[in-house]
Amino acid sequence: MAYYITTPIYYVNAKPHLGHAYTTIVADSLVRFHRLLGNATYLVTGTDEHGDKICRAAKKAGQSPLEFTDSISAEFRALWPKLNIKYDRFIRTTAPEHMRVVQSFLQRVYDAGDIYFGEFGGHYCYGCERFYTEKELENGLCPQHLNTPEFIREKNYFFRMSKYLKWLKEYILARPDFIRPERYRNEVLAMLESGVLEDLCISRPKARLSWGIELPFDTNFVCYVWFDALFSYLSALDCPDGEKYREFWPGEHLVAKDILKPHAVFWPVMLKAAGLPIYEHLNVHGYWLARDAKMSKSLGNVLDPVQLCDRYGLDPVRYFLLREMHFGSDASFTDENFITRTNADLANDLGNLYSRVLSMNAKYFNSLCPAPGREEAEEHSLRSLVSNTLHNYIQLFPKMYFSQALESLWELVRALNKYVDSQAPWLLYKEGKNERLGTVLYTLLEAMRKIALCLWPVMPDSAVAMLEQLGQKIPAGSGPFPRILEEEADSWGTLVQGTSLASASNLFPRMECETPKTAVSERISQKTLKTDVQILNEPVNTGNLSFEDFKRVEIRIGTVALAEKHPDADKLLRLEIDLGEETPRQIISGLAEHYAPQMLLGRQLCVVANLSPRKIRGLVSHGMVLTVPFEKGLALLGPSGPVPNGNLVT
Length: 650
Ligand code: ME8
Known about the structure:
The protein is an alpha+beta fold and about 650 residues long. About 40% of the residues lie in helices and about 20% in strands. The strands form 7 sheets. It has a 6-stranded parallel β-sheet, sandwiched between helices. Strands 20-19-18-21-24 form a 5-stranded antiparallel β-sheet. A 4-stranded antiparallel β-sheet has the order 5-4-6-8, covered by helices on one side. Ligand ME8 binds near residues 8, 22, 48, 295 and 296.
């Protein structure tokens, strides 16, 4: 199967930012995902270089439009490899091959009678490069740029869009996933519901603007940027005669909600009028907000993707973007969100799984992949979880449910960490149960291999490193792979006994949040904690501690089996910690400001185990987790490698 995906071709009036990076990373991940499904893929991105907006930006920079567009277009082109984005074609609207395609379609639509000459007055926003009707303005302002558009009356060419209203409505109604997610489909249907679709002004008089593609039927005019830019999706395939066009069209588009209307209304109608097949899907995402405001060039609050990758590493950034944003909704980028999410998912859950399993395998099997022995109920249920997770992932990912697909993969990662705790390989080793130990470690390693493959579209370098640690490679070459993911979902046992594996792993180091806590919030948190605590059995104060007394303090190692927010206190977490006793202990701890509950799951901690129980905000705490407060947060104490739960710290 052929899979064609495009990003918007970005305006070159300013440098690329995280919003552009998001769309293009999503496109790259989709292409990589489809390659794992065995599909031939083609990814197009590029730059949109004509129009008023670019002309004005060039003037401001003291350059000619061409000099200016050359330099910014080159910045976009240079950015993508830094983000590990592998595009197949970078299309510029100033390229002669693109201009020829636009002119040939303009002529075709003109000859068919769908372009006419007329006079029109409208409110023109230079930012959007389009006319607005009175009704579309919000309090007289452009709804995108919040500025006052200029009223312009002039003679121009118009595209008979109105003629296609009924056709477009029916086309969208007949295809539930033509525009997705559904909320944007509904938005477009609501636009069309009014029963009016105005004809589109598709020219600009050269007297006002000459930086554009000349109309083939009237050299006094240039083409409206949107009528020019949308055709880049076809010129990038060398439409109408190119081989790529025959192989890949129709494909899918990826855009944010700012350019919903041109893609959902103008573009299908333009294709219809030109007698071409309509695209398959329009995938529309929300905005990345810098804290709470939309990140945009005009608001000047943009985040630089390269700086973020330098600070945090490329793969954690790629992972965060796909995991944090529910495709279609807005999401906020802050350092705190980023660090909390990546510490929890990458350093703790995934990194920890790799590190503990590989180091145990080094110790127990000399870093060679063990042979699995007889499987028991735990392995059967884990194997069916692996298979279900992969099937789920394959369903969700190509439909733009990236966050949900990754969450489902992480349920598996967490289940594997729990399996380590419940099977306690260190005890099996101690008890000399070697066959069982082999089964447990093999099960973990094989599942970890599948997880690495699933993650290749999202974190290509890390996935390659994970596979290498397991003695595996991602199949080489740029062509499609055989249907790897589907086969992995239904098979088991690819990892070969005796394969040499890494003896240690440190994939995703933990990061500390650099945002300083204010003295006030520190004071408030201490005060709240103090008044929250109700001592049940006041311990006797004996003054200075003798060694005998110190020896009475029982500090034990426990694994967090459950972590959740305290129902009544924002700063507290309710933990259940496995101390090797019959049931895990409930411990209430003031960690919520520093750790999301999921960051703690499966983690081994030092616990004061013989403290008198005390009630904290209505819940009894049977012990205390040891922590080290410092200026940037709160560190946790725990063993440097896995040890049996309940072991005493001496
Ligand atoms: O609209 N959050 O170009 P453009 C998420 N040239 N994505 C964002 C974003 C944000 N805050 N800001 C920008 C144009 N984007 C036209 C397109 S296509 C034929 C012509 C991304 O440079 C998102 O993909 O303004 C959005 O649709 C696109 O950049 C707009 O890029």
